[in-house]
Amino acid sequence: xTDQTVLTRASLGALSRPVLAFVRDDDTGWGDESLWALxxxxxxxxxPIDLAAIPAAMHDDLARRLCxxxxxxxxxxxxxxxxxxxxxxAAGRQCEFGLSRSVASQRADxxxxxxxxxxxxxxRTDRFFTPPWNRCxxxxxxxxxxxxxxxxxxxxxxxxxEALQCLDVCLDWSRVxxxxxxxxxxxxxxxxxxxxxxxxxxxxxxxxxAAMSDAEFEALRGWLRVLQEDPLLRWRPMRELLTPCSHxxxxxxxxxxxx
Length: 259
Fold this sequence. Notes:
This protein has eight helices and nine strands. The protein is α/β, with parallel strands linked by helices.
């Protein structure tokens, strides 16, 4: 590797105890060819990856190929990413499940989205929810719990909720790449490792395959080689990071799937 990974190697070498980590790639349903390239890259590295899938964009051919890959043994998780990834806010920051929408309208999208994923992916779908743009209304976590979701994944600076377990990301690959390139990513990862170890929380890396350039893919390939080498940085599927209390009995829209 080049010296672009000096900080990454140093931060991993400074670990005094294991740090759990996961990768969440957003926007499955967009940029299919980039998605396959990313999944090939992770399979080559022997690392798990979780896909946040847009239900309204999950066409049948994409679902079929995902099912084939998962059934062949790929360590790929899939969960719900909003409904159509549509902004409903007239002003302010973009949000699909935000303040402009009632509980009833959010519920309808959640139910329709879950049933779409269930229809095309079967029981390969995890009961997690990632809101587009990593934000949602204050009442959304409670609604998710009521409907039977097990986890919510946002950005780690989001307002905490006790409604259900949060598996939040702390490093946005694409944003840091745009702002500073490989060296900035190395520094941001070093900081994320330190903060995750200090807070004793999983380190979450967020990717957006549809927005990644060839240069980003090549940089990520090299980066993953470094990340998988350290025995104290332990990459896991999101489903393995759930605590026992986050496994409630099937309920809400999930009841029919487990009855």
